[in-house]
Amino acid sequence: MWIWLGVILILLFLIIAVVGILLSPIKFHLVARKKNRNEYVQLKVVMLFGIIRLRYEIPDIIFKNIKEGFFLKQNRTDNLRQDHAASDEQEIDKDKVRLWADEFYRLLRATKGLKKWMNSTLKHITFNKLDWSTNVALTDAAHTATLTGALWGVKATLVGWLSYHICLKHSPRLFVVPVFGQPPLFATEFECQGKIRCSYALYAAFVLIVRVLKVKGGVKKWLDIVAKGRKEGSSRS
After folding, report:
1. Which residues pair with 130 in a beta bridge?
2. Which of 34, 55, 176, 210 has its CB surrounded by the most CB atoms within 10 Å?
3. Which helix (H) or strand (E) holds 220?
4. Residue 22's closest CA among 49, 51, 52?
5. Cβ distance 58 to 39 under 8 Å?
6. How do residues 179-218 score in pLDDT, each as one tens digit?
7. How many CB atoms neighbour CB 128 within 10 A?
8. pLDDT digits over 12-26, tens only?
9. Distance of CA 181 to CAs 140, 142, 144, 176, 187, Å?
10. How far apart are CA 135 and CA 23, in angstroms?
11. Predicted local distance difference test score (pLDDT) of residue 216
């Protein structure tokens, strides 16, 4: 009798644990700042009620020139292996961007309905917070006012597209502040907090695998792209 009672309690505990995991949210917090030549980007991801924590940080973004592109310094930390940390550096030029675009089109061809899957997944992401403020100044006051209006238009367009694809629980807070009588300045800060249910994230991953399997050679193309990305990451570290 006691053995059966123990088995029942273990099964009950496992069921509660599985249900808890499926109902738990995957939360993320993104902060991006730029002031003239100084940039900073940080992404935090929390899963399983805080048991798993990931942080991705870009403390330096240096623009060299049109030909050489950008230089990035990246830091990654997690609590999976006693606060494991890693850092690397990478250059992003027009050839790298063209390569990423080619790989994305390869993924499109290797997955049945990838765009449809992406749109469906985005609709299950909820933003609890979306703030975007910008201060701008030019030497001429009229140019500053014109740029301010243009920035309002860009922000409204981007946030409108985002609100069409993602659920916004609160109205986004957008600011564009013209600064007159000051040296040229461009400072902006973007911050958002969001979440997606772990159950739907697992479901979306399953659907993606099924869509890849429906395309002949799709799995091989995905594995080739992933292996190539890992090879590039290991060569930089």
Report:
1. 192
2. 176
3. helix 218-236
4. 49
5. yes
6. 888 888 889 999 999 999 988 998 999 988 888 888 888 7
7. 14
8. 777 777 777 778 899
9. 9, 12, 10, 16, 16
10. 40
11. 81
The position carrying tokens 């890693």 is 86
3 state DSSP class of 99: helix
Alpha-carbon distance 190 to 32, whole Å? 5
The model's pLDDT over 84-115, given as tens digits with 9 standing for 90+, comes to 666 676 777 777 778 778 888 888 888 888 88
CA dist 15 and 218 (Å) reads: 35
- Identity of residue 104: F
pLDDT range class, residue 235, cuts 50, 70, 90 = low
Report residue 22 as tokens.
């499926």
For residue 161, what are its two tokens?
């597209």
Backbone angles phi, psi at 28, to 5 degrees: -140, 150
pTM for this entry: 0.78
Amino acid letter for position 173: R
